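Thread: Newbie trying to understand structure tokens

Hi all, I'm a second-year student working on a class project, and my supervisor (Dr. K.) asked me to get a predicted structure for one chain before our next meeting. I've only ever worked with sequences, so writing a 3D structure as a token string is new to me. If someone could post the tokens and maybe explain what I'm looking at, I'd be very grateful. Here's the chain:
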Amino acid sequence: MSEHAEFMTKYKEYMTRHTAREVALAMLFQLDVGKNNPAMTERTLEESGLTPELAAFASELAFKAFEIKDELDAKIEKYLAHDWSTSRLAYVDKEILRMALTEFYYYDAIPIPVSIDEAIELAKTFAGAEAPAFINGVLDKLVKTEKLDMKNREDGAAK
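---
Reply by user tm_fold:
Sure, no problem. This is what the structure looks like when written as tokens:
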């Protein structure tokens, strides 16, 4: 095996859902903010080097969040300060929140605390200094107010 092939094999072993979420965030940003067509967004996925399983996860997450963004924004707005709306949020913060909520409601196999932690990590990497605390606060308030089950996802709100 060549040195490059060996490196790529090890690299793919280290890829995780976190990496897939980073790609999903880029795709969602392209769809929503960049107004790119889905074919252009798929190119980002192809160039990511994700394994087929992780690529499927990233694609499904990005396209689902984009498809239901109005529904997600309505939920998010309930947990913002009374004089705020999602139109006032930084684009990346809004996309991270949308992805987390998509996981909450449509991915039973992902525990809610994992989705929250991943959203915070994405914010630390891609958003402003205040974003991780802000995103954590919005998600925590939503989970507590809507009484989402933090442990047993089979009884959770995901449908």
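A couple of things are worth pointing out once you decode it. The chain has two domains: 1-67, 68-159. Confidence is low (pLDDT under 50) at residues 154-159. Feel free to ask follow-ups in this thread.
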